[in-house]
Design a protein that fits this description.
Layout (H helix, E strand, L loop, with lengths): L6 H15 L7 H35 L2 H18 L2 H13 L5 H15 L5 H20 L2 E3 L2 E3 L1 H10 L3 H33 L6 H8 L4 H34 L27 H5 L4 H11 L5 H6 L15 E4 L7 E4 L6 H15 L19 H12 L5 H6 L7 H35 L5 H13 L16 H5 L5 H20 L15 H12 L7 H9 L6 H8 L3
Antiparallel strand pairs: 1-2, 3-4
């Protein structure tokens, strides 16, 4: 059996022998064999613990029970203890440092394991305290429900008020009630942020920088990319928002200058308000959204039947269940991928389910089993977000609906509204992502600053929404990702770039140069074949930018995205 504590010494001895005898060589099978043993040992130790942690995480999110969250915390602590094993990390670091592994798959597996274990090389008590705090806050998120006039409202009910009410006072009450969550979690979140920074100390400036490194991203390059996006989107967004604001003000009988955050149709203005002529919600109100998704993905030869079955076909909202949506790969062997959702028929949940099932097809279901366990996942979180976003956009295309057998009563109005909503969604979401990236960066750089002020300064600058007069509340803390998926949100925006670039590549390669605006995939199995060959098959053997080049022929850039929000071919 492999003795991890002896590995660094063995590697040192091999290196001396190797370089004396073959000073000009660049690799050697002996190092590769040793690396494969390390990968196999890691997999044997970690995989069962990851599966247990994944199942516990799922159970906590579908029940909301305190004992389930305790089981989730215990499972994460057991997994963290193995990932934090110093002898294991030293062995991984030593074999990686040699640069003498002659098999690219094994070399990549070692790099991925190194990133997974580097994060855990901190004091065991600190790791457990971070897990405890994060778990406690996630439990609060799962069980929080807004209250208005002594009535408890679900997340869907809050959204419905913001979407349909013409009474500013009622809208304000619902919006403020949803933000009460921030006050509930803010004390624990502040502690967690400081603990995360403490965990990053020594190797990184702060937790934000560490997470970017672990995600194979560079902070300076990221800010340059988002600065460029700011330049590209600022004026088009201003024009789009001006048009939206006129309609919002008219609907609520207020002046444009009087519009406040609660006049928009979701709590963070990350989606397009439903102010256009075609009522997309009405179209989907009587549809079985899960059945539509099943038929669509089956038609492109990426079936999701097993995902629906493993999810328990449990997609309706209910008490105790996490009110949001996500996809998770429990076992990473293609047999147990699940989606949690709280479907209420309408455009929001149609696009959301296309999104989540998009994640599910980019999972071990379609990643080759021949790859090592540690590489049987998406290349990067931005690439799986990109795939999900690419499929999600279909819900606003009339051609997609009609090919799926859904009747559109006023095709012209739908085309105009759908096309505008797609363009405006890209603009609105890009500005919202600016807020999230820059807020998290600022929060981890200086957690003692006035975070309430930082949040609203960024909202005013990038989303152009006025802060409510005199408001001083931790509204930022009501956004789940800041707690449960830290330093993640910028990947949604990079995913949008990847989605546009990939969609244009499909239009070019599968549809022989067709206008990307007309391509909807329905019933075309060649789309599934393309996705398997160029996106899914590599698993995590390629970094995100290498995969982008492999799938689209170019590095990630805003060019295709800019064409999409401008409406040009």
């Amino acid at each position: 059996m492999l003795s991890l504590r002896m590995v660094p010494l063995l590697i040192a001895s091999l290196c001396v022998f190797f370089w004396i005898l073959t000073p000009c060589a660049s690799a050697d099978p002996r190092f590769t064999r040793l690396a494969r043993e390390i990968v196999a040992d890691f997999t044997q130790r970690v995989r069962p613990l990851e599966i247990t942690a994944n199942r516990a995480w799922w159970q906590a999110n579908i029940t909301g029970k305190k004992e389930a969250f305790k089981a989730k915390e215990d499972a994460q602590n057991q997994l963290d203890a193995v990932l934090a094993d110093r002898a294991q990390f030293d062995a991984i670091e030593a074999i990686r440092r040699t640069g003498l592994i002659d098999d690219p798959i094994t070399k990549r597996a070692i790099d991925v394991i190194y990133l997974a274990t580097l994060e855990k090389q901190v004091d065991a008590k600190l790791l457990k305290e971070m897990t405890r705090l994060s778990n406690d806050i996630e439990e609060k998120f799962t069980n929080f429900r807004a209250r208005v006039d002594d009535k408890t409202l679900s997340d869907a009910e809050v959204r419905n008020i913001l979407k349909t009410s013409t009474l500013s006072d009622r809208r304000q009450a619902a919006w403020e009630a949803s933000k009460e969550l921030g006050k509930v979690v803010e004390p624990g979140l502040r502690k967690l942020v400081k603990l995360r920074n403490q965990a990053a100390a020594g190797k990184f400036r702060n937790y934000h920088q560490m997470q970017l490194f672990l995600n194979e991203q560079d902070g300076d390059d990221l800010i340059k990319l988002f600065d460029r996006l700011d330049e590209l989107t600022r004026e088009p967004f201003k024009k789009a928002k001006a048009e939206i604001d006129v309609e919002l003000a008219k609907a609520c009988n207020v002046k444009v200058s009087e519009l406040m955050p609660w006049h928009y149709h979701d709590p963070f203005f990350q989606e397009v308000p439903a102010v256009f002529k075609a009522d997309l919600d009405k179209i989907y109100a009587k549809q079985d959204l899960i059945a539509l998704c099943r038929e669509f993905y089956r038609g492109i030869d990426l079936p999701i039947d097993l995902v629906i079955e493993k999810s328990g076909n449990d997609f309706a909202p209910r008490k105790g269940k996490n009110p949001h949506a996500f996809c998770t790969d429990i076992t990473r062997d293609g047999t147990d991928v699940r989606v949690l959702a709280n479907v209420v028929p309408g455009d929001y949940w149609m696009s959301t389910m296309l999104h989540e099932f998009g994640h599910s097809v980019y999972s071990s279901i379609n990643i080759p089993s021949k790859l090592p366990y540690v590489l049987r996942s998406e290349s990067n979180i931005l690439t799986t977000e990109g795939v999900a976003m690419m499929f999600e956009k279909m819900s606003k295309r009339r051609a997609w609906l009609e090919k799926m057998g859904v009747k559109v009563e006023d095709p012209k109005a739908f085309d105009q509204a759908g096309a505008k909503m797609l363009r405006y969604q890209l603009l609105i979401f890009s500005r919202w992502c600016q807020v999230m990236l820059r807020f998290e960066k600022g929060m981890y750089e200086n957690p003692d600053q006035d975070l309430n002020k930082l949040w609203w300064d960024l909202v005013e600058r990038y989303q152009m929404i006025r802060r409510p007069p005199g408001r001083n509340a931790p509204d930022y803390a009501s956004k789940y990702h800041i707690v449960g998926a830290p330093v993640y949100y910028h990947n949604y925006m990079m995913g949008e770039l990847f989605a546009s670039q990939l969609h244009h590549a499909i239009a070019r390669k599968v549809y022989k140069g067709a206008n990307p605006n007309t391509v909807v995939y329905v019933g075309n199995k060649a789309v599934g074949a393309f996705m398997r060959q160029y996106v899914f098959d590599p698993g995590r053997t390629l970094s995100w930018n290498a995969l982008t080049r492999h799938a689209t022929g170019a590095d990630l850039s805003p060019e295709a995205f800019a064409k999409d929000f401008s409406g040009k071919k």
